[in-house]
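[Meeting: bench + compute handoff]

Bench side (C.D.) handed over the final construct sequence. Compute side (W.E.) agreed to return the predicted structure before the next meeting so the bench team could plan truncations. Sequence as handed over:
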Amino acid sequence: MRVIDHLTRNDGRTAFSFEILPPLKGNDISRVYGIIDRLREFDPKYINITSHRSTVEYQERPDGTIVKKKIRKRPGSVAIASAIQNKYGITAVPHIICKGFTRDETEYALIDLNFLGVHDLLLLQGDAKGPDKSTDPSLVNLHATDLQAQVNDFNRGIYADGEPFEANATPFSYGMACYPEKHEAAPNMESDLRYARMKVDNGASYLVTQMFFDNQKYYDFVARCRAEGITVPIIPGIKPVVTRSQLTVLPRVFRSDIPEPFAAELARCTTDEQAKAVGVEWCIAQCRDLMAHGVPSLHFYTLMATDSVARVAKEIY
């Protein structure tokens, strides 16, 4: 079943879903399975798999010279999505990103995913840090909306080079990102809303938010989206705080404000275990409020937080 079907045919109940990272290079998939096994009891309707570009590292040779190397620390999401979907029968949603990938590489990923029977995607621009394959705009997708256009063409039976082919029997369905507190590159919220509307008008079947900790910002954002004519489901992205350092790291990296009452509680913590307990308590209250407002799904970011997500889910599902 497609993600959009889970979101619209769930009998008014709030669906549970989560996002995982591929294992680090050299590790097998057992760690991924361990996370899924831990959260499977809460009946996840779909599981997202992140995608990561290469990073640049500088390494010293025995002669003292420094060389620059591009290193891919995690495998791609294609094989892992297929493995998850086939092992668990749960809809897998690989992330397809612009940054660090050429249009040709994206096309190969789409061909492989279709062959493997994975037809749900999340389309993202991706992390801006790291090396780009090319600065030639014709060879890369610079923005998520460019990537969206490529996927739409593929669904219609048009390769990246413009050559036609017999379109696949099952087209890709996809969601895209949105930002209740504004994307870092957007000059203002009005511009951000225009891009959200563009994504939906051009085929995104749902939107999923960047993490947030203040529900009112989500409600205000949804209201503004509805006023702009955006009618698709807008899925709240949820992240339990698990360490004291995240009090400053998450606002800096993800531009997500932490409300003063929550921030004050975290500031009083003297250990990460205390911060983790405070994070779980806040997240439970946040999720219960969102569910009371009838959100179609809660989507959890599990990085460093699998245990906390399980504790939250046990209280609300």
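W.E. noted at the follow-up: Strands lie at 15-20, 44-49, 55-60, 66-71, 91-97, 120-124, 173-178, 206-211, 234-238, 297-301. C.D. will use this when planning the next construct.
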